[in-house]
């Protein structure tokens, strides 16, 4: 029964899910058409919201491109590849490989979503190089599936926003939360940790059971995954310019400066491991492991090709977010109306689950934790307070909903797919099964949380 369900999901996605760029365009058309009657906006007003939003993710686009490029370049370093190959030799069977990748990805994403997004796929590729008989599509899908737990982890933007003091906290919650909510009540609460644990276990088991058999296995040729070796190992620099390009000393000095800054930021000033810190870690570790500046540049040039999808698609998602969050003369936004609809059919027992589901729906169009919090926080937090639901629970319901539908939203998969050299259709059929399983577990978790 489960096998038939998986095969049906894979066929459904293969048949109907378009290339991610086309998916973004279709979402644009849908949001545009729905915003006109729902928000009582004219087509010109919606067009204006779309156009004003198109460049709203420029900084984030650059961050994601750097996560991809710096992470890939680090993984391309000879010493790192040798280390990953040793780890990849641990599983002896295909099912064990799928389980290990699922676990590594989920734990890494729980620690930091940017770190986990890259590490999981890089590790999966290493296993694909070493092992025959493992389905490459499912291997990469397993690496991406761990991303669903990131907002329940220690880099979750919404629970961290609730824990950050300042006027912004009161503003986004409409005065419901005026004092910070400690992460002991959100991320590190027993119920959230329980949800994370059961979701991770379910991912490991489900991904392992989804592995096809016999002729159904789509295996990748390990030769296609081998990276090009440096053909100039015997090169001896002679000019001052060539000596600078091949200077290990220059690489070590700049890397030392980068590590010193990270130590001050994370351990002296006590700041969190944010996305910029992850990028810096990837960058300077890559420089160290490539040894010379010119070796790092050559590797980075190869990795940069994979960032094309980010550069093309992120402006269109920013435009969709502009439509979703654009406020009409009556003070109505499309994302706000979706949230309000779920609030109207809620009671004190169903509110967390419906908040989770509404956040999952909004996330399809607004795939950004910070953007979603800005839209849903002012609506869901006061509504939850009026029903007697704890602000910590409401905040985590929004957070989990934001992470949940990432499993079928190609936006976040773009960097992973670029590294894996696959298309969204190759993995989303398996991710759809993970969406259904994790959705049930998270919903039950919130039901128990409110009892």
Question: Would you write up a description of this structure?
Answer:
There is one protein chain. The chain is mostly helical and 451 residues long. Helix content is 72%, strand content 0%. It has helices at residues 2-16, 20-38, 43-53, 58-76, 78-88, 94-111, 113-130, 136-145, 157-162, 167-172, 190-209, 222-225, 240-245, 248-268, 275-290, 293-304, 308-325, 334-344, 351-365, 369-386, 391-404, 410-420, 424-449. Helix 4 packs parallel to helix 15 and helix 5 (78-88) crosses helix 7. The two termini are 33 Å apart. The model has no long low-confidence stretch (mean pLDDT 90).
Quick overview of this protein structure:
The protein is mostly helical. 72% of the residues lie in helices and 0% in strands.
Mean pLDDT: 90
Largest sheet: none
Order of SSEs, N→C?
HHHHHHHHHHHHHHHHHHHHHHH
Which class do the helix and strand fractions yield? mainly alpha
Q: Percent range for helical residues? A: over 70%
By DSSP, the count of extended strands is 0
Percent range for β-strand residues: under 5%
Q: Which parts are unreliable, with pLDDT below 50 for 5 consecutive residues or more?
A: none
Could you tell me how far the N terminus lies from the C terminus, measured between alpha carbons in angstroms? 33 Å
Radius of gyration: 23 Å
Shape summary:
globular
Number of helices: 23
Tell me the layout of helices and strands.
Blueprint (H helix, E strand, L loop, with lengths): L1 H15 L3 H19 L4 H11 L4 H19 L1 H11 L5 H18 L1 H18 L5 H10 L11 H6 L4 H6 L17 H20 L12 H4 L14 H6 L2 H21 L6 H16 L2 H12 L3 H18 L8 H11 L6 H15 L3 H18 L4 H14 L5 H11 L3 H26 L2
């Amino acid at each position: 029964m489960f096998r038939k369900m998986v095969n049906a999901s894979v066929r459904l996605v293969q048949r109907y899910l378009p290339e991610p760029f086309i998916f973004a365009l279709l979402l644009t058309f849908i949001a545009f058409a729905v915003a006109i009657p729902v928000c009582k906006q004219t087509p010109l007003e919606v067009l204006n919201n779309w156009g004003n939003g198109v460049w709203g993710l420029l900084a984030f686009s650059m961050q994601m491109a750097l996560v991809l490029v710096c992470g890939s370049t680090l993984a391309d370093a000879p010493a790192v590849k040798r280390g990953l190959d040793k780890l990849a030799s641990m599983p002896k069977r295909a099912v064990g490989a799928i389980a290990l990748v699922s676990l590594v990805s989920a734990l890494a994403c729980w620690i930091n979503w940017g770190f986990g997004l890259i590490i999981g796929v890089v590790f999966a590729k290493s296993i694909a190089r070493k092992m025959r008989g493992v389905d490459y599509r499912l291997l990469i899908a397993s690496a991406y599936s761990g991303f669903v737990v990131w907002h329940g982890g220690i880099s979750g933007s919404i629970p961290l926003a609730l824990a950050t003091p300042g006027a912004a906290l009161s503003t986004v919650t409409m005065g419901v939360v005026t004092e910070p909510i400690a992460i002991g009540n959100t991320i590190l609460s027993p119920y959230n940790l329980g949800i994370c644990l059961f979701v991770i276990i379910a991912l490991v088991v489900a991904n392992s059971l989804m592995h096809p058999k016999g002729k159904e296995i789509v295996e990748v040729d390990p030769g296609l995954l081998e990276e090009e070796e440096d053909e100039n190992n015997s090169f001896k620099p002679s000019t001052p310019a060539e000596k600078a390009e091949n200077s290990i000393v220059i690489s070590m000095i700049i890397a030392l400066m980068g590590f010193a800054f990270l130590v001050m930021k994370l351990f002296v000033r006590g700041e969190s491991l944010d996305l910029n810190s992850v990028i810096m870690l990837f960058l300077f570790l890559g420089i160290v492991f490539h040894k010379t500046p010119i070796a790092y540049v050559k590797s980075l040039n190869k990795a940069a090709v994979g960032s094309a999808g980010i550069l093309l698609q992120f402006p269109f998602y920013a435009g969709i977010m502009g439509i979703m969050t654009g406020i009409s003369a009556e003070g109505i936004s499309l994302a706000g109306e979706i949230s309000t609809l779920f609030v109207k059919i809620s009671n004190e027992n169903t509110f967390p689950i419906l908040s989770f589901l509404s956040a999952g729906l909004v996330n399809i169009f607004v795939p950004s934790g910070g953007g979603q919090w800005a839209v849903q926080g002012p609506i869901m937090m006061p509504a939850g307070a009026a029903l007697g639901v704890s602000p910590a629970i409401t905040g985590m319901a929004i957070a989990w909903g934001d992470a949940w539908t990432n499993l079928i939203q190609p936006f976040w998969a773009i960097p992973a797919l670029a590294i894996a050299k696959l298309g969204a259709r190759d993995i989303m059929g398996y991710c759809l099964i993970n969406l259904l399983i994790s959705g049930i577990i998270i919903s039950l978790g919130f039901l128990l949380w409110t009892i």
